Fold this sequence. Notes:
The protein is of the alpha/beta class. Helix content is 34%, strand content 25%. The protein is built from twelve helices and 15 strands. The strands form three sheets. Strands 8-7-4-5-6-9-10 form a seven-stranded antiparallel beta sheet, with helices on both faces. Strands 13-12-11-14-15 form a five-stranded parallel beta sheet, sandwiched between helices. Strand 14 (328-334), helix 11 (337-353) and strand 15 (357-359) form a beta-alpha-beta unit. It is globular and about 70 Å long. Mean pLDDT is 88; it is low at 47-52.
Amino acid sequence: xxxxxxxxxxxxxxxxxxxxxxxxxxxxxxxxxxxxxxxxxxxxxxxxxxxxxxxxxxxxxxxxxxxxxxxxxxxxxxxxxxxxxxxxxxxxxxxxxxxxxxxxxxxxxxxxxxxxxxxxxxxxxxxxxxxxxxxxxxxxxxxxxxxxxxxxxxxxxxxxxxxxxxxxxxxxxxxxxxxxxxxxxxxxxxxxxxxxxxxxxxxxxxxxxxxxxxxxxxxxxxxxxxxxxxxxxxxxxxxxxxxxxxxxxxxxxxxxxxxxxxxxxxxxxxxxxxxxxxxxxxxxxxxxxxxxxxxxxxxxxxxxxxxxxxxxxxxxxxxxxxxxxxxxxxxxxxxxxxxxxxxxxxxxxxxxxxxxxxxxxxxxxxxx
Length: 368
């Protein structure tokens, strides 16, 4: 623990922690402060946490990585032929911020908030990486964008799960093109055959993950670095809002247009949550909030209809009661670290149990 504390003091919070042999986000934790770090280390050191023997050792270490907070994640799918020409299939901006597993995040083509110059940087980086790796076929590159800085998360020299989505969104048969390229054809030859064309435009496509929480109501539906989705759906329309609405509807998480919303936000998300609350009001929805969120909104002139507690033992009406009876039809609940998850996961579970639409990131709230 002392070594972990010294490392995090050097790189700062928040950080990602995981047992070193784990792949794909399993058992990964996002740590926001020293107390959470101590609890996480205790958990990983416990019997059974790392197999039958438990405990940590040189053979069973923990990795600690610095985490880019509030970064926009972006996926780029591309095809490169043996002449070095690179076809950018699609640039996908994620709705949820980096830190939510890419398989659980919604994403949009074309990007909705990224400046044009950032998109050009992403394209240039993808071409450079494909060249240096001498790719012959598909490559997927994942980026994180913070302000004016573009970070490369990873490059996968293979087909990604996003290839079918990109192909449908753009009308370009990426899998067929990649197969032909891997057999020796050039993109120029395929262009002459009419296979490589300009992508379709004039619409927005949104990919959304299908999450199984309605079948497992005892599981906390908060999204994080561990992938939980069991499928994907797609919405297409003339605007992002309509496309996102269709994607959510197809995923079984329909966005209501009437009724009352409940907001419970961590401190870091409260400024953006102010925008969410105002927009919900503009669309005619009622507003209820937890005490801390309600106080913050009131400071900026947004009054809620009712302040709700989370303690069901108090005897007062709580968010759980109004979710159960159908009064609350939309929940925006953003946990941050261990304490937030412990306090609010029952609200998110109640939303899953009663089939109430619930988002667990403020970016998803803004999108909705």
